[in-house]
Amino acid sequence: MNTDHIANSDGDNNRALRPLDGVRVVEACSYISGPFCAQMLSDLGAEVIKVEPPTGDPYRKFGHSWDGVGTVWTNSNRGKKSVVLDLKSEEGLNAFKELLRTTDVYIENWRPRVSESLGLSFDEVSRINPKIVQLTITGYGADGELSKEPAFDALIQGRTGLLSYEAAGDFPRATNTFLADKVAAVFSSQFVLAGLIDRDRHGKSVHLQTSMLDIMSYYNFPDMLHNHTFIEDQAEVTLPPQPVLATRDGYLVLSPVSGKQLGRTLEAVGHPEWKEELKQITDRKEMTHTFFRRIAEPLKEKTTQEWLVRFQELDVPAGPVNQPVDHLSDAQVLHNELYSELKTRSGTVRAIRYPATFNGQKFTPRGPAPALGQDNDELL
Fold first, then answer.
1. Spatial contact of 241 and 165, defined as CB atoms under 8 Å apart
2. pLDDT at res. 206
């Protein structure tokens, strides 16, 4: 670990030692997978230096914005420093290489062969810093027929079968969240941590290579391909549905998984006699469909809150279908102290803390997303 650059960027009220204090990360990424990964490392204490081109990370302007700054970008880049370098110029490239000399982790998510074209192959990076951990995130892999193709979240969801698996009726649909990008970020942060251990164990540089295609395939496999686990298995999807059920004033979700919970659900809706009839259905998928179809009508007779109270009394797993904004005022969310506020040049922003505690210590956000090039003078 390079100790000559240790710096604690936390505010006076937030100086608890974090696991990655003393680790420097250089991130040359755009979109979500690489930046969100680097933000997680920042939450864990790493000093993250985001290197942007003179025009800035193009994702700064993506989607909904406030005061000219994209909010998705803001939520994926807080707690970092920003420097502007033109890597296509000799001066900018040399400055970038100087940063890499004192860096523990280097993350990039360019298309394959972009690094080589800039003179930043892993061999060259390792020559500059023999103990660096380099993480390369691509869409489809370092080589192969798709390696040069652009890769975006919905494209990965479609290619891995997730769109069809989540079909509403017969019509495939994508999730309304950047699932593939965010899952790639979570896995990538895990790769970096393993890479640091491997680097320290063997005393030499490590090149971690991954792709969104590989990550989402790994993520999908345990349940989405459950009926293709055994090579000779030809069964259709057998996992029971996860239905949303209407109440008198809204919706709820029910997840009874044991025979007792199914029986208690029938008791709650006033029809315990249906239990014996359902027992006669031997096909589990058919039985589950029948169960939810039967209880759908009784659930419309009371409000969501009335049902939640009743299901809680009987220890039946149930929950509301909240709007996203309702989540922010959820009693358990408030109790867990997930969100805090940060002052920025454009106004106060809401930020979420790292979702784990270390010996009871909660790691609150270290700082807002950086202004473009705000740390050039300090770092260059």
1. no
2. 98
So where are the chain's domains?
3-222+342-379, 251-320
pTM, entire model: 0.91
Nearest to residue 288, comparing CAs of 301, 278, 275? 278
Strand 81-84 with 105-108, pairing: unpaired
Contact 33, 109 (CB under 8 A): yes
* Backbone dihedral angles phi then psi of residue 36, each to the nearest 5 degrees: -65, -40
* Rg (the chain; Cα; Å): 25
Q: What is the pLDDT of residues 184-221, one digit of tens each?
A: 999 999 999 999 999 999 999 999 999 999 999 999 99
Count CA atoms closer than 13 A to 8's CA, side-chain side.
11
Measure the CA–CA gap between 80 and 288, rounded to whole angstroms.
48
Closest CA to 365 of 25, 76, 10, 49: 10
Q: Which is nearest to 218 in space by CA: 175, 183, 174?
A: 183
What's the pLDDT score for residue 3? 42
Q: Tokens at residue 64, please?
A: 């909904």
Question: For domain 3-222+342-379, is the CATH number 3.40.50.10540?
Answer: yes
Pairing type for strands 251-254 and 244-246 reads: antiparallel
Residue 289: Cβ-neighbour burial (10 angstroms; 0-12, 13-18, 19+): middle
Dihedral of CA atoms 145, 148, 153, 158 in degrees, nearest 10, equals -20
**Residues 250-304: pLDDT tens digits?**
999 999 989 999 999 999 999 999 999 999 999 888 898 899 999 999 999 999 9
pLDDT at 1: 55
pLDDT of 242 higher than 90: no
Question: Quick one: tokens of 232?
Answer: 């000779």
